[in-house]
Amino acid sequence: MRIFERLCPTAPSWTVPWAEITDAFDWIRRLAGVPQDPLHHAEGDVAVHTRMAAEALAAQDEWRSLPADERVRLFAAVLLHDVAKPDCTRAEENGRITAHGHSRRGDLAVRRILWDLGAPRAWREHVAALVRHHQVPFWALERPDLEEIVLRASLVTRNRDLAMLARADITGRICGDLPQVLENIAMFSEYCADLGVLDRPWPFASDHARFMYFRTPGRDPRYAAYDDTRLTMTVLSGLPGVGKDTWVAAHAGDRPVVSLDAIRARLGISPADGQRAVAAAAHEEARVHLRAHRDFIWNATNISRQHRDLCIGLGAAYHARVEIVALEAPRDTIRRQNTGRDAPVPPAVIDRLIGKWEAPDLTEAHAVREGGRPDHAGS
Which of 65, 99, 108, 159 shows a CA-CA span of 20 to 30 A to 88? Predict the structure, then answer.
C-alpha cells in the first residue's frame, strides 16, 4: 500500500509525520474532538491517542526490526485501530464515556476503507483482524476460552503483531493501570509462544479438524477429527455486482445451484423487501440436495458471518464439506455491473451491505477460495 509506505516512519529518525497523515485521511480527521474516558485516556481525544499510539509503535525496537512491508502493515493498523470510535462513543448516565463495540465495528470500517484504497485482500484482512482483536492481549488471560481465542487469531492475523499493537495502544495513552496491562500483554505473548502460535497459525491435523474445532465448544485442537463429509457445499460470498452469476456460469458444471436471485424472481420479492420467505425457500432447496448427498452451490450475497453461518450450520448438520468462494470487485465495477443487471439492486441496499461486509476466513469453513483459488492457513 503506497500511501502507507510513504507515511510510515523510517530510520534514522523514525518520526511519525502526523500533519501529513491528518491531511491524507479523512477518517483520521474524524477522530479529532471525539472524547474518551479520562480514567483510561487522560491524554485527550481519540486523535491525540492515535498519534501517541503511532509514536509508541515507531519507538518499539521489535517493530523497527521487522521487514519493511510488515512495518508498514502494522503501522496502518495502529492508525486505524480506533477508527470506529466516532460511531461508538457514548456518555453514560454515571458520567463515564464508553466506546463499546468499537473493535468489531472497526473491523468493518477498516475493510471498507482499505477496499476503497485498493489494498490487496490478504493485506487488508490482516489489518482488519488486528483492529478487530486489538484489545485481546489486555484481557485474554482472564478468559476460560483463551486457547480458542489465540488459535483463532493465529489463523486470521499474527499474534506477535497483535501484542505489538496492544503495547503501542496502551503506552500511547495516559492511564493508571499501565504496568498491569503491559504485564498482561507480556504474559499473552508468552502463552502464544508456548503454544507455538506467536508467529504462525496453529497446525490443525486437517481442514475437517479445523472446521469441527471452531464449531465444537471445548474441543481439543489436537484431535484429528474423522472426515465424515458426504458432499461438498460451495457457498458464494460477495456484494451484488461482483460477478457471482458469472462465476457460477464458469464453474458450476452440472452442479445444481440454489440461487436467491432466482427465488426472489419466482416469488416476486424485491431485494429491498423483507427476505425471510426467500431465505426459507433457499434453505428448503438446499435440504433437498443435502439429503441426497449431492454437491451443489449456494449463490447468495452471504456478506456477514452470521448469514453465512445459517448456510454453513445447515450444511454441517448434513455432513457437508463447506467451501466458501469469496468474490470481490472495486466499488466502481460493482456499480457498473449492478446497473447492467436485469433487476438492479437498489444502491441503498448495496451501501447497507457494504457496511455489514465481513470477509470469510478459515475459522468458518473447510476452505475459503478467492476467485476459485484455495486460501490455506499460513498463506
Answer: 159
